[in-house]
Amino acid sequence: MKEMILKQIGIIHTPFKEPKGTPIQPGKSNGTEGTIELNSEYVDGLKDLDGFSHITLIYYLHLSKGFELKVVPFLDNVKRGLFATRAPKRPNPVGLSTVELLRIENNILHIKNVDMLDGTPLLDIKPYVPEFDSHTQIRTGWLKDKSGKSEKTKADGRFDD
Amino acid sequence: MKEMILKQIGIIHTPFKEPKGTPIQPGKSNGTEGTIELNSEYVDGLKDLDGFSHITLIYYLHLSKGFELKVVPFLDNVKRGLFATRAPKRPNPVGLSTVELLRIENNILHIKNVDMLDGTPLLDIKPYVPEFDSHTQIRTGWLKDKSGKSEKTKADGRFDD
Fold first, then answer.
1. Residue of A4, A9, A106 to mutate, testing the B interface (most B Cβ within 10 Å of its Cβ)
2. Residue contact A131–B50, C-beta within 8 A
3. How far is the alpha carbon of B1 from chain A, nearest alpha carbon, in Å?
4. How far is CA B117 from its chain centroid?
5. Residue A59 to residue B105: CA distance in whole angstroms
6. B81 with B141: CB under 8 angstroms?
7. How far is Cα A147 from Cα B14, in angstroms, rounded to an integer?
8. Is the pLDDT confidence value at B150 over 60?
């Protein structure tokens, strides 16, 4: 199995119409709200999801073309290995963000702390479960001294050509 | 954009040769170790990754065929909406696990707390960054009273036909 075909199950709507100015991660979006428009054939799969405060979205970075194996990440000024960054240009341009789930109305999910471009194709929704997804005793390598900088940095030119 | 083609960038090796007995999530694998064999053309992208204690893997659940929108999750005995569960049979069978990174030797990553089947195709590696990935003030819906049960539950028949 060398190639796998995935399908769009919905679309993410956000106020971010172009890469310039789009937040680099959900924590930087300062509470920006958006919506997920799930394809109507999947709506039965949303049952019970409203009990979760946070959901993890897997989506296709549709404007991300090509990649380089070493990149200068948004919080740094030296080249890092691509897999040690969250840069959007990757061998598989798949994005991952945990957002706050505000409410669900039929096939529309209202979400908060979005960091995706408007029109981003959705691949999956998973409930955020701290027991599985939250870890302690963490080392974060080159990022460890950058968190102060990240507080002030919202967007960068990573999507730009 | 309705269909997207992703490519295998490596393969995950674990002791779990068949679905029966494979842990349901990394926290349940009790420290089981595995390896990632990254395709050699991507090895430059691993630079700096060894500074991170945890990495998040996105992978293709290659034995997961088909899906139903309501499923009985491993921790429960009533049907829940698919997107409110981590069940492997999904519209896009994409798995998500954060594992501990022990060490890297060339294109081989030694990892701990694996919950994938041996031979699972790898799609992406991202560094685990608590600032982005760890959340507090969480509600976990139907799962909230089940954590005691999950401590005792390792595998289930979710992959079984």
1. A4
2. no
3. 7
4. 9
5. 30
6. no
7. 34
8. no
- Tell me the two tokens of residue A53: 């405060």
In this structure, are residues A95 and A58 in contact, taking their beta carbons and an 8 Å threshold?
A: yes
- B70-108 pLDDT, tens digit per residue, is 999 877 889 999 999 999 999 999 999 999 999 999 999
Smallest CA-to-CA distance from B62 within B35, B34, B92 is with B92
DSSP conformation class of B150: H
Query: Is A9 in Cβ contact with B7 (below 8 Å)?
Result: no
DSSP-H helix ranges across chain B: 130-133, 147-152
From CA B142, how far away is CA B161, in angstroms rounded? 25
Using CA atoms, how far apart are residues B52 and B36, in angstroms rounded to an integer?
A: 15
- Contact yes or no for B98/B56 (Cβ under 8 A): yes
Chain-chain contact of B42 with A3 (C-beta, under 8 angstroms): no
pLDDT digits (tens, 9 = 90+) for A12-62: 999 998 877 777 666 566 789 999 999 999 999 999 999 999 999 999 999
Which class for B78: exposed (0-12), middle (13-18), buried (19 or more C-beta within 10 A)? exposed
Query: Ramachandran region of residue B11, left (φ > 0), alpha (ψ -120 to 50) or beta?
Result: beta
